Amino acid sequence: MKLLAATRSGGKQREIRRLLKPAGVDLVFPDEVGVALTPAEDALELGDTFEANARHKAEYFARHTGLPTVADDSGLEVFALGGAPGVRSRRWAAASGSAAEVDAANNAELLRRLAGAPEARRAARYRCVLVWLPAPDARAEVFEGTCGGRILTEPRGNGGFGYDPLFLSDDLGRTFGEAADGEKDAVSHRGRAFRSLVEMLQREG
């Protein structure tokens, strides 16, 4: 089965390739099937929830390609910040530039917001919501994964992407920036959500 993962993020693409490998699907991304980037995509992530954004992306790319499509929306939720940055995780600092520059600006904003915060106020979780559309007009299936941790006062490690160097995983005892790919996948929010999808595909396949 050819399956479209509705993301243009290089970091997400690398993780999704690893996570969907057990499903034995022919995985493709928007650029690989000729879906040109247009300003219309900017509006797909303006919802108030992860599920709304994932649903918008899945429906958009399924309509444009006719392919079975999975879309995720995910982000960091810091409890002392009322769940921020949440659905605004990628755009929190309103930065532009390369992926690395945007990540750096977002991490700087996170450190600024938590400057001087004690350990008890640094609890956080990563959250991922997947929406699976087997066909453009099909009923969507929704999967969710979370993982807990806390935010450090300075980054550790150069792996991963986004807020990973600041996120100290409860499960691993080190940051996602320090973790090997397989270690992160085993406990991450995206890993848990995609394993639920893979299990469904294997049951139905």
Structure description:
The chain contains five helices and six strands; from the N terminus they run βαβαβαβββαα. Helix 1 links the parallel strand 1 and strand 2. It is an alpha/beta fold and 205 residues long. It has a six-stranded mixed beta sheet. The protein has a single domain, classed as Maf protein (Alpha-Beta Complex). The chain is 32% helix and 20% strand. The mean pLDDT is 95. Helix 1 packs across helix 5 and helix 4 packs across helix 5.
Protein topology:
Elements: E1 2-5, H1 10-20, E2 26-28, H2 50-65, E3 69-78, H3 99-113, E4 123-133, E5 141-151, E6 167-169, H4 181-187, H5 189-204
Short synopsis of the structure:
This protein is an alpha/beta fold. The chain has helices at residues 10-20, 50-65, 99-113, 181-187, 189-204, and strands at 2-5, 26-28, 69-78, 123-133, 141-151, 167-169.
